[in-house]
Prior knowledge:
With 202 residues, the chain is α/β, with parallel strands linked by helices. The chain folds into two domains: 2-91, 3-Layer(aba) Sandwich (Rossmann fold), CATH 3.40.50.20; 101-202, 3 Solenoid (UDP N-Acetylglucosamine Acyltransferase, domain 1). Helices cover 15% and strands 31% of the residues. It is built from three helices and 24 strands. The protein has helices at residues 11-23, 54-58, 75-86, and strands at 2-7, 26-32, 41-42, 45-49, 63-66, 90-91, 94-95, 100-101, 106-107, 112-113, 118-119, 124-125, 130-131, 136-137, 142-143, 148-149, 154-155, 160-161, 166-167, 172-173, 178-179, 184-185, 190-191, 200-201. α1 links the parallel β1 and β2 (26-32). The longest helix is centred in the N-terminal third of the chain and has 13 residues, at 11-23. It is globular, with a radius of gyration of 16 Å.
Amino acid sequence: MKEIVLVGGGGHCRSCIDLIEQTGEYVIAGIIDLPPKLGKRVLGYPVIGTDDDIPRLAGEYSAFLVTAGQIRSPDLRRRLFSLITEAGAGCEAIVSPHAHVSRHARIGAGSVVLHGAIVNAGAVVGRNTIINSRALVEHDAAIGDHCHVATGALINGGVKIGDNTFWGSGSVAREYIRVGEACVIGANIFVRQDVPAKTILR
């Protein structure tokens, strides 16, 4: 099995550890986190370095995954993704065996599709994006890079969501709307019309 290094040791990391264990395709070599966490463990896996160690570890391991979470700002996940790719390592796309991703859909590098999620035919998910537990990305929808579609969200057919956008838990997008880059959509909102870039809806 391929060894993988996880970058970020918080709550989302725990979800990703469970996801990776369920796939049976990887061995988790360790976790990169903040300096005070060095030597500690997350669900039994050691913290083996900090962000500064990414170039060195990229020479030892070829597979990485950004496991820092994203609630409002994508900046941390974007920065970590860039550090990994600039160091010459790859970011894995990982799909839960308890999710459904159509063979006619595409999942970008570094993205994760968590338990119970559905990505239907013709859908495209960009790079370094989280499709969280029980979220739906319907047919022909497109989710940009560095996005987070949170738990139980419903993205209906043909919807386009721009890069760096957060889509909150339980929120629903009406079919074929367009959502601009760097938006924040709060929880349990029904979005019926196009949303301009950098809009915050709560």
